[in-house]
Amino acid sequence: MLNRSSREHVLLLCNNQEEYDSAAIDSINEGLQAGQLCIYASVFNHDKSHLSKISSKITNYMKNIEKGNLVIIDFLPFYESAKASNLAPFKQLKKRIEELLYKRISEGKDDKALIFAEAAGFLSEHCNFDKSIELESWWNDAHLEWLKNKLNITVLCPHSAAVLNKKSNLHAKSQISKAHSLTLELQKCRIRANNSSSGLRVLIVEPEKDIQRVYYAYLASRGVNALIVDDIGKCSEQIFSTSDEGFEVVIIDTHLQNSNDISSAIELATTIKNTIPDQRIIVTTTSPLIEVSIKMTSLGISKEDLLVKPFALSRLLSLIQPHMQ
User: What is the pTM of this model?
Assistant: First the structure.
């Protein structure tokens, strides 16, 4: 649904509870697949039947809870507190999230977190717009602080599109939207994805977060399903433990693990080729082409699949287009 490195505070407009649940399941599964900390905070989590329905569709639900990768929070008490303008529980939650993330970082785990939080949306759905705006403004301040402290946290806040799109509620919608860094309408996103998706699966190993964002935005707009990771370990995990679908193309940058030495990228490409000889690999680099070419062509990677930065993204697309349906 989102770039896993996006670090956005997202207003997600949904049409009904089914879309709320679907958005939660999809985003959590994507986050777990990428090794993120995922926090599901729903006002319906006190309902065992709701949790049973959700848990059956989340990958390795209990295992991820036990490992600390997935945290389930009953958000109904938080909703009641926000309704009374008491945001103290949210401040305590913020501290808990930070502690969990710092602990994961100290353990060498992925440094990203995804929070799916429904309280503000529930407030707007019940026309408590002032309280919803107050809560979303608090989330916005928290998110800006996380960005300042270089914490990779994405917050998804679902709201009812039917409620906020009413003419009488447009001012409230504008204020709620302003409290977010990004507004998405789920139905439009899925229609656009269904119309444009090529079915192509691309794995990109790129350490620079700004470049990750550019890759994701460009390829997603052209219907390419790009999974982006930032180091060798995550790449290997995705390639060698992924589903039978695999990846049609793997794009590897030569400067991995904060090194100007291309040996890490060569080692990774060699491991992939030894295990999956037919795997298509494209290499991006800022090193002299001749240096990279000598190393990579010996692995069966053609010179056409070596891209020296900066390069036009249209050129990258032209290289992967033969794989697009």
Answer: 0.61
